[in-house]
Amino acid sequence: MPVAIITGASKGLGRALGAALAARGWDLVVDARSAGPLEEAARELRRGGARVVALPGDVADAAHRTELVAAARELGGLDLLVNNASVLGAEPLVRLEEHALDGLRAALEVNAVAPLGLVQEALPLLRASSLYGTPAPSPYIGDNSHQTGTEAHKSTGGAVLNISSDAAAEAYETWGGYGAAKAALDQLSAVLAVEEPGLRVWWVDPGDMRTDLYAAAVPTDDGAGRPLPGTVVPALLRLLDAGAASGRYAAPGLLDGAR
User: Fold this and answer.
1) What element of type H or E holds 149?
2) Choosing a second label site near 215 at 20 to 30 A (CA), which of 5, 157, 196, 208?
3) What are the domain boundaries of the chain?
4) Architecture (CATH level 2) of domain 3-87+104-207+230-258
5) What is the DSSP letter of 135?
6) At 16, which helix (H) or strand (E)?
7) pTM to 2 decimals?
8) What's the pLDDT at 24?
9) Cα three-residue angle 21-25-27, rounded to 5 degrees
C-alpha cells in the first residue's frame, strides 16, 4: 500500500485529506502538536483498515521530523509527503509595524524551515518510491490560470505537497508575516522541483476555508460563509491521480477544471 506523511492532521485540511487517502487504502503517518485530538483523528482514520501511526510533536523539532520519516520507513516507504502544519506568527494578525519579530521567526520556522527539514529527511524514501513511473502530463490541468508548472518530465519517485496560501502571492493588510513565510515555502518548493526532477512537487493555494487557523487570524469574522476544508480535498486528489507536473496550483482552479 502507498504511504503518506501528513503534518497538522488532527483537524482541518490535514484531517480531511487523511480521511480521503485512508479510504483509498493508503497507510498514514500523521502528526499534530496536541496528542488528544491527533489520537482521536487517528482512530477515525483506522476504521477502514488503514495502518495509521500517530506521532504528536512539533514539526519545528528536528528529532520529531526524524521520527516521522522513520515511522514511514517502518510502514514500507514513503510515496507522498504533505507539509500542511502551519502557524500564523501573530494571533490575531496585526500590521507589520506591530508584528513581533519572534512571531515572524516562528512562522518562518514552522511554515518554511520545518517543511524543508522534513523534505531533507524524507528524500531517500521519496526518490525510491514507485508511485509515478510514467512521464508527467501537460503542466496545465483544465482552466487553472493560477498554476505555473514545470515542463513535463519522466518521474519514478513520489510526491511532495506543500500547502501554501494566496497570502504568499498577494499583499493583504495584516497578513504580511504569515504571507512572507508561505512565500518562502513557495520558493523552496519551486527550487526543489528543479533540483529533484524525479519527484512531483506541488505547492497549492487551497483558497478560503473555514478553519481554526483562519478563526485565530481574524476572530471578528465568524467564517460562516467560507467552505469547509473537505471541499478542497478533491482538488488535491486530482493532482495526485493525474501525476500532475510540478508547479504552483490554486485549488479553485483545479476544481473548475474538473467540472
Assistant:
1) strand 148-149
2) 5
3) 3-87+104-207+230-258
4) 3-Layer(aba) Sandwich (3.40)
5) B
6) helix 12-23
7) 0.89
8) 97
9) 75
